[in-house]
Structures are given as structure tokens and as C-alpha cells.
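INPUT
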Amino acid sequence: MTVPQLTVEQVAVVIPMASDIQEVGRGGQKIVFSGIIDARKYALKFMVPNPSQVGGQNSEFLDDVTSRAQREVETMQQCSTPYLVGMGPVGLNTTDIAGDPIIYFSEEFVEGQNLRAYLQSDGVFSVPELIRLAFYMSEAIKSIWQFSKIHRDIKPGNIMRRNDNGDFVLLDMGLVFDLQDESLSVCPVGTPLYFSPEQMDFNNRRMIMNFRSDLFSLGTVMYEMVTGHHPFTQGATTTWEVLGNIANAVPQPPMALRQELPEKLSDVIMRLLAKRPALRYRIIELFQRALREVETEGGLQ
Amino acid sequence: MSLLAQCGYGRGGKIEQGLNDGVIHGVIMSPRDERRGRLEQDIENWGNSHPNALVMFDPQFYAANLNNARDGHLSEFDYYNNNSGLGRTHFSGTRIQGYVKECLDYQHQTFGSNLAYLISPTILFDAFRDSWSQIALNMAVESADYHSKLNSPQPLLISLVISETAFQTMDAVEEFLDALTEIDKQGFYIILRRNSASVQNAMESAPFGRFMYFCHVLTTINEYDVIVGYSDWHSFLLEAAGVTHTATGWYQNLRQFSLARFQPSSGGRRPRKRYSSAPLLSCPLINPELQDIYMANLLPRVLSESSHDAILQNGPTSGEANWSDEISCLAHWYSLNALSQRLSALPTQSGRILEAERLMQNALTLYTQLSSENVSFDPSTGPDHIREWQDSLQEFRGLAGL
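OUTPUT
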């Protein structure tokens, strides 16, 4: 996988309706610019198709980067919740820049701070903030699951807090797993620190993965955002050891690390972190009801 | 939590009386044992006479793939008769859809609002990882899908018939629970197939503890309704695990489910009369066990305090002739219902577990006291089953972290 080497000027040629174009970030296989289109700011994402898989213009087979981008765009188009990043005015396109194939599309540009940065600058969340995060992310997970899809990469770096209203938005649907479509991966994908136990069982993923896997990842994020500690990194020095902890270790309840936390909230987070999906929440509404109970009992409404 | 009547052959007036007395709160009908016309008429009648009773119809589709099943009146029901004698090759996706449709359509169209739930068809399986369990799971998923299209106001219970041997290993239980809890329906109607049905026959402690955990995950954790059929004395333990309703009947084969119920009868003599003692958590023989207790002046300690006790109070053997099958059944329901009500009055699961432990400890203490008064018990009535139950409860507590 390569990151496209693009300049602002080249982007302006590819998307002439965009102005005030600026580079805002580079990921594992993409480069992201911001640009103004019709007086609104959007993220403009560029990727290089996987050269080893490109079968020429007339090939009916798509390479994995293009297929993932296609799924990402399709998911954004399907889901209408404000807690998932939305699609921009530029749909999925391909072009050549200096003879190299490039794929690109636009999405909503979320002005704000991601939770990884928040943890580093501001520290842990208050209880009301955490409940708000949990509600919004549960809506995002529900919205994706309506289409039999799983996000698979819920982590602090993929959750933004909007500057304007403080709402939380889940980003980056590039690794979405579609239970009703062909698989785009040959090995487990996502961020290992936020894997669910069943996410590691790659060969059986179609049988055992559902939205409850995303709930586990959300539980890991909630634990981290409210205690400042990752639940599964204690005593681990390698990724394999973290994965071992995710599969086998039961973390301390959050309230053991932060005593003023409501016990019920601590229990909700621990339930999300249950090793077996059957011990989490079988429908999102039960999770949301538990959150409301924490609010009510704590007088937080 | 409440007790339901597990119906079979020879209903007589027991159901009406049990509902009127408030010792049962509903009925699970058995098409194997009823003429179709009478069954349909009775369900309609109960809808009028006991509108709050939980009336259910167990389609008993699981008999369709038993070899030479003694299936009684089931052949009068099209959903069964069109599909009996099924082998492993008869469970393709399309065929399963057909079985599900016929079975749920029958309940929906015939009984309407007179049923509290519709019950899905299923087949029996012996292990959570065998191909039959996968077929049962496919039938469950198809039933849930079809029920969603049916727009029935009656919620659906997914039925499962599981051998007790399936609970020998825990990891397979958890895998199955992961799959089951993907189903978004009202709940489950579960029958535990016993290897044999006899009067005491407590299950081996570890598998039963796992079965309790299985029910706990479905009810307490995932908030499904769970009704366990043929649960009899195990009911109070299952209620401690969170089960919504339990059921038992009058004959031994309606108190514990085994395949003997669907096999040719080997005959046998009429069972000896017994008394269902809530304090002892068992059914001592009226003669000689209950009589010996009477002679030791300890009869009040073992009575369940139902109105029927008066028949035996002046000497069990002298009252034995009046201890009819119907009274015996009503007294049995009274005892089990009393235990059930005692547990359900407690607001927390930990409270119910402690109460179940207390009931078992009290029963053992009572057995010890009776033994010291030279009252001896037949092995089928002795206290061994209670020790098995205590171990089951410990197994369950360990698994559930309670």
C-alpha cells in the first residue's frame, strides 16, 4: 500500500470546484485534503489502487483499495445518522495523475478534536460526557448494523468531538465489514488494541461477528476515556500480549480506578467488555436503556 | 414467575381446577395427546373462561424425525402429518421454511389471540456442535424471520429440545448462546431431554448447573422470556437462575421429558401414590413413608399446607383411598407453585439464590431429623437429589459470577 504523493495544485486540477485546498493528514494508504465546495468545507480523500491487483481499465475485478473505498462511500450514503461522518458532494472517482491511477472522494469535514488528542490534552471524561459519547456511538453502530455491517475500527482516533455542538462523530468506514457481501480482507483488520475477542478469529468471522464486536471496541474506548487507562495493556509489552489480554484477561472494573464513578456505569462498561458476545447487549436499545438508568440514578439528566 | 400445566393424556378436570385454584397460571398443550377438535375447542374455551391464563401450544415437531415415533394424535395436524418421518436430508433451507410456515400459520390462524405466544417448530439435538444443533438453529432463525413477516400480535418463542448430555462441555454451550442471542424475538421455550425419566432422577450436578447458566444468560442477561417445560422439582432452581415460567404435568412422563414419551409403552403397573412435600423438596410415598412420618409425629413438618392436606392429616394410610390422581396432581402443583411464589416475591436474583439454598438446607435438615426418628426412605425419595442440586447451584454461581 502506498500513500499518494499529491500537491495542492494537483488536487485543484482534479476537483476544480474546490477552493482553499489544504493538506490535513496522511493515513496508512491515503492522503486527505480539506477544500471548500459551495461554501462548505469537506475532506477530500485520495488513494492509490493496489498496483498488484489492478487488472486494467476493462477488468471486472477491483483491487482491495478501490473495493474498500467503494464500501466506505456506500456505507456513508446508506447511513443517515449525524453520529457517522457524512458523504460529500464528490462521489467515488478515479483519475490519472502523472500517469498514476488515483481514486478519490469527498466526505464531511468535521471540525473538532479526536478523542486520542483529547485524552492527551484534557484528560479523562466526566460521567455525563462519557454517557453522551456512548449514546452517540451506539447510534452510529446501530445505523451501520441496519445494513448488516460492522465498523471494525472504533477507537479514540476515529471519534471526533465537534467544536460547534460537542457532538461525537464516528469516522473512517474504510474497514467496514459487510456480512452480506464478499470479504475484502485476507487477515484480521482494524487496530489490534481495540479488537474484540471474536475479531481475532478471522476464519469464523462471518459466523461470529456482529454489532456486538463494535460494542466491545466501544467498551474499550469508554474504559479508556473514563479512567485514562486502556483495559488490556496492563503488563503487556507487545501487541500479541495485548491480544492475549483481550481474549483472556478480565480488567479491573473502571470504578476500581476511579472511585467516584457510578457502580452501574462501571458495570455497563464491564458488560461491553465481556468475552462472549452473548454476555454483552443483544440489541442496542438495551445498552441505551442501561445508559439512561445510569443517568436517572445519578441525577444526570 | 409462575407454574404452567404441562399437558398430556388424561387431562380430566385438572386444568380447570388448577387455574381456578390459582396453582397454575397457564397451560402448554400437547397435540400428541389430544384429538385435534377437542384441543382447538378447549383453547378457545380457555380464552373466554381464563383470559389471563398463559395458553401455549407446543407443536411437538421434534417427533417428526424420531424413528417410529408413537406420535398419537399428532398425525391429525397437517404441519406434522405432511412432514413426519424426516431424515437428515430433509432439512434443506427451503424445506425448513416450509415446516416453519405450516407450523406457525396453523397456530396463528387457528388460535389467534387465545395463545399467549406462538411456539416455533424444532428438532431434538444431543450436542451443541452436531449437525442437528445447526439444523435447530436454522429452524430458529427461519422461524424468527417468518414470524416477523406474519405480523402476528402473538410474540414468538423459539423452541429448543436439548439433551442433558449436551451440557457436558461448556465452550460449546457458550458458542451456541452467542448464536441464539442474535435472534431478536420474545424468548425461548426449552425442553431438557433427560436420559431417563424416573421419580427422583436429579440431573448430574455440573450439566444442570450449566443448563441453569444457559437459562440465566438468556433471561437475566439478555432479557428474553424463557419457559422451561417438564421442569417439575427443578423449577425452583431454574427460577433462581431467572427463568420466566416453568411447567410440569401429572404423569411422570409429563414431569421429566424423555424419548420414552414417544416410544411404544412397555406397560407397567400403576405407580404408587405419593405426596408432594415442599419442605422435603420431594414426593414421599404415602405408604409407608408419609405414614412413618405421621407415626413420628412429624407430619406437619413435611406438609405443604394445601387444602388437600386435610385428607391425610388423620393418618396418611387411612386417607390414601381418597388421594385421587387428580388431587395428587393439584397438590403437586400447589407445592411447586408455593416454592415458585416464594422465590418470585424476592426482588433480586441474589435473594432468590439464597432462598433456594435455604430451602435445600432446610430440606436436608428435615431429612436428618426424620432419619433420627427412624423414618427411612426409598432411594427414589431420599435426600441424594438435594445434594446434587446444591452442587448444581454452586456450579451455576461460579459460571455466572453470582
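end of record. Chain B has a mean pLDDT of 94.
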